[in-house]
Amino acid sequence: MAPTDWFQNAIIYHLLIDRFAGVTAEDRLQPEFLGGNLRAIAEKLPYLEDLGINTLWLSPFCKTSAYHGYHVTDFLNVEPRFGTLDDLRNLISSAHRSSIRVIADFVPNHCSHRHPFFQEAQNDRQSRYVNWFLFEQWPDDYLCFLDVKELPKLNLDYPETRDHIVGAAQYWLSLGLDGFRLDHVIGPKHSFWKYFRREIKKDYPAAVLIGEAWLEGITWRHLKTLQIKHKYLRWMFGVSQEGIQREYYGELDGVLDFQFRNMVRTHLAHGRGTALDRKLQQLLRQRLGAYPEDYFLPTFLDNHDMNRFLYECQNDTEKLKAAARLQFSLNQPPIIYYGTEVGMTHELPVRIDGMHSDLQARQPMIWNRPDCELLAFYKQLIRERKEIRNSFTKLDDAAPSV
């Protein structure tokens, strides 16, 4: 058995720290910190335990200049507005006592322009940190995350930078984390990911490494910031989401299955029926069969960067249920984005080119008016999946050795 085999049976709950529990602000559609925090999440563990999930995925908790956590200003400290290091330790240990593993978002490709290392690099050309970034013309022309100037790209070819990022990942794992969802894996080079995996697996072989390899919103002008294979040639002749997802086999333990979400959105959310389409189910299983067996492709219906699935299907909960049944029927770890299980939706669409339109899908968790029928459906769906997975495990254990 591989050390990461535990992830095969994972049922994952994905949440944004600032938006899940502990929210105090009243204006909830602002790109500001609303008060959600680690201690409040720990207090909600009984809810997650009752729901039945066994893996918790936290948004970035490192010190940050943005509520969502992806603008990191210190890779080695917890954002004070989210809590303390002890709060993080307590959440992890409490989750483990409830048989819930914890993975977290980790952002190695870039940092916030407010990171003190970048600020020093911009203000002092002789600074040791100039080489930590990719200046094309110092001090204001530099590579960044796509074309977001607030997120300067890290020079992971530079050993000091590379080892700082890897060391930060190792530090958080030493506190008990069970792995990472790795942000924007198409940004760093494949050589970095090979190094990252090798160094992480030395001491943490069971830590799962799942990448976000996503192409939506990317154009020709962004290619200079990406490090996918044969990028210009592939872009000219058509680079597929499926091909990008396969690209990280042997470097990561798996990638999020954006192609699954695309297919289910097209066939179920925007389709006419609510019953499971056997052809779609067969097609999904065939494409999963084309991937290596030891490569994880966690499935999801929605996340913090896109429309909630219920919005996509015009708030038709029967379509959401059909999609969830299909998701949970596949032999890959399913992910539930916080609030999907209680009917969270929104009024306006999330647009890639819309300033802060993603706030629509990042509203605070609804604790006081859940769709109880939908919640009961998800609890039953999770129970059934666990029963099926347990029966498979017992059959495997009972099989005679050859």
Radius of gyration: 21 Å
Strand content: 5-15%
Task: Please give the largest β-sheet.
Answer: 8 strands, parallel
CATH architecture assignment of the largest domain: Alpha-Beta Barrel
CATH-defined fold name of the largest domain: TIM Barrel
Q: Are there runs of 5+ residues with pLDDT below 50, and where?
A: 398-402
State the name of the first-level CATH class of the largest domain: Alpha Beta
**Overall pLDDT level:** 94
Helix content: 25-40%
By DSSP, the count of extended strands is 14
Distance separating the two termini: 15 Å
SSE sequence, one letter per element: EHHHEEEHEHEEEEHEHEHHEHHEHHEH
- Count of folded domains: 2
Tell me the strand order in the biggest sheet.
12-11-10-5-2-1-14-13
Please work out how many helical segments DSSP would assign: 14
- CA-based shape: globular
Briefly note the structural class of the backbone: alpha/beta
CATH superfamily (homologous) name of the largest domain: Glycosidases
